[in-house]
Specification:
Blueprint: H1 3-13, H2 19-33, E1 34-37, E2 44-49, H3 52-66, E3 72-76, E4 84-90, H4 93-102, H5 126-140, E5 141-143, E6 152-156, H6 159-171, E7 177-181, E8 184-189, H7 192-201, H8 205-255, H9 263-274, H10 280-286, H11 293-312
Antiparallel strand pairs: 1-2, 2-4, 3-4, 5-6, 6-8, 7-8
Helix pairs in contact: 1-3, 2-3, 2-5, 7-8, 8-11, 9-11, 10-11
Length: 313
């Protein structure tokens, strides 16, 4: 199962909070997978989704928040009986009016409100904002495999809906951006810490711990890689410098002989040839008396200058 699937399975099993929180979560789910259709009774509320966890939560919230029970039918494809379209229909006029009234969709004059966005009266409280975002993610959200990259998104049909969800995420001080994708608008979070905070907001605590474990392992692996790369770079730097120093020493030896060097430079030259892999600190400790890194570097630079002067002449 994908990481998104695990999150949605977790969210579908939990029904938390007071009735107003359940209504906020139901409103979010309904805004993505619900529709109002004509029926023999006049009007019906219809839910259509391919995700079994969405239909499970929709059915549960209908029962818990509105005391309404309805059947969920599933139409499977011929190729795969595990997948298909789940549909639930509430066609009792009394039940439909009860739901539409709770969702603030019916105006005082009996007409239907513009459903471009969800009425903000449904999530005035912080707990209801959490519930609404939980329903929005369950219905239209996804998270990429955290082992590969950090990416959470909620796909919205309109810019107005996207801005509404972005605003709610901002209320929890989480950075969320919007990008247009074909005919939809995507609210997304790219930072791992932001995704962790979002999962905490929607109370997906098991998934949150799974993501944190992945982040810890990735950070440890990255830290080790940085250390190895740094040490490798230092080794390469030492080898490159050593090869140039030995080249200079051998040129002096073959041109005029190392005996022409002063005692301290001659000692340094023989040590460098004998220990080509040693760094400057190691070379300094091999001298008698020992000297520091800067002293070794100074002597090797003087040898390099002598070699360059010989080459020019």
């Amino acid at each position: 199962m994908s990481f998104s699937g695990k999150i949605k399975e977790e969210l579908s099993k939990e029904v938390r909070g007071a009735r107003h929180c359940m209504i906020a979560e139901f409103a979010a789910i309904n805004s993505f997978v619900g529709s109002i259709a004509a029926s023999k009774a006049g009007v019906a509320l219809k839910m259509t989704t391919e995700n079994k966890y969405v239909s499970r939560k929709y059915f549960t919230l209908l029962k818990k928040a509105f005391n309404i029970e309805t059947d969920v039918s599933k139409k499977t494809s011929e190729k795969n009986h595990e997948t298909g379209v789940n549909t639930a229909i509430v066609d009792s006029k009394e039940d439909v009016l009860k739901i539409l009234s709770a969702l603030k969709i019916i105006k005082d004059d009996g007409s239907l409100d513009d459903m471009t966005t969800v009425n903000e009266m449904l999530f005035m409280n912080t707990c209801c904002k959490r519930a609404f975002l939980r329903g929005a993610f369950l219905a239209a959200g996804s998270v990429g495999d955290p082992n590969k990259s950090y990416h959470l998104e909620i796909v919205c049909p309109t810019m107005e809906r996207a801005k509404q969800i972005q605003g709610l995420i901002w209320d929890f001080e989480i950075d969320a951006k919007i990008v247009a994708r074909k005919k939809a608008y995507v609210v997304y979070i790219k930072e791992g810490a932001g995704i962790v905070d979002f999962l905490n907001v929607i109370e997906a605590h098991v998934a949150l711990m799974d993501l944190e474990n992945v982040r810890i392992i990735k950070e440890m692996r990255n830290a080790v890689n940085r250390q190895v790369n740094c040490e490798t770079a230092n080794i390469n730097k030492t080898i490159t410098a050593s090869m140039k120093q030995i080249e200079d020493i051998e040129y002096i030896r073959d041109s005029v002989g190392l005996e022409t060097l002063s005692d301290n430079l001659k000692e340094m030259a023989y040590l460098r040839i004998a220990h080509p892999e040693a760094n400057l600190n190691d070379l300094g400790r091999l001298l008698n008396p020992p000297i520091g890194k800067s002293g070794v570097n100074h002597r090797l630079r003087k040898i390099s200058v002598i070699a360059d002067n010989l080459r020019e002449s």
